[in-house]
Amino acid sequence: MKALRVLLLLALVAGCASTDRKGGYYKDDGPGENPPPNLDAVADATPRVEPLHKFANRPYQALGRNYTPLTSVQPFKQRGLASWYGKRFHGQKTSSGEPYDMYKMTAAHPTLPIPSYVRVTRVSNGRSVVVRVNDRGPFHAQRVIDLSYAAAYKLGYIQAGSAEVTLEAIVPGQRADAR
User: What's the distance, Cα to Cα, between the start and end of the chain in Å?
Assistant: First the structure.
């Protein structure tokens, strides 16, 4: 069982690796053969109360670091580098067990509860999206979140591979100004 967990974790680590060089895609990643005709029209994730995943929120280790996920949906803010992942992992299972869909508004985060929702705002242009966290990663010290291809596209950093962002958890049922 431990060997299976290690293999799954290594797959996740590889899955949450897009480029931090300027331009181009990581290895053979990218938009896929037939992207939807209007990615700008992909709707943000709709925050709702969901039961937390039984297994995806347990403490775990990746690349020699220990992670302890939050065990409740709660206010959370973070600033750092976002990356994205695309066709190389399209259809593969996420930490939640759901298949990864690069054209949906989803994300991977090392410690936010699965599932949960977060508003991601690109610092340089002010663009903002709401994504559903359903995966673990990224496991690179400089990165705070991996977004789906669609979310990164809407924030305008596909070609750059990464961008500085702010994250703000959304607590369903709580007004944004009620904090």
Answer: 42
